[in-house]
Amino acid sequence: MTQPAAPTLSQAPGGTFAPLARPTFAVLWVATIPGNIGSFMRDVASAWLATDLSGVRLPPDRH
């Protein structure tokens, strides 16, 4: 008994969003969005805090 050949790239069902049809992949992919937003917020907050704690004040902007 022979096994069927693995689908080649041209035979694979597809489209750009085809992987999102798999529920596990879709959930993990969507979960990265709030994770990335949270990382961005943490980076901004830590930079802001470091600047605030340094005590360095910038001179007023002169136009």
Q: Helicity, in percent?
A: 40-55%
End-to-end gap: 82 Å
Provide the structure class: mainly alpha
Cα-atom radius of gyration: 24 Å
Which band does the percent of strand residues land in?
Answer: under 5%
Overall morphology:
rod-shaped
Poorly predicted regions? none
The number of distinct β-strands equals 0
Number of helices: 1
Describe the biggest sheet? none
Query: Helix and strand string, N-terminal first?
Result: H
Mean of residue pLDDT? 85
Structure, briefly:
The chain has 63 residues and is mainly α.
How would you sum up this structure, described in words?
The chain is 51% helix and 0% strand. With 63 residues, it is an all-alpha fold. It is rod-shaped. The model has no long low-confidence stretch (mean pLDDT 85).
Write the layout of secondary structure elements.
Elements: H1 23-54
Short key terms for the protein model shown above:
1 helix, mainly alpha, 63 residues, 0% strand
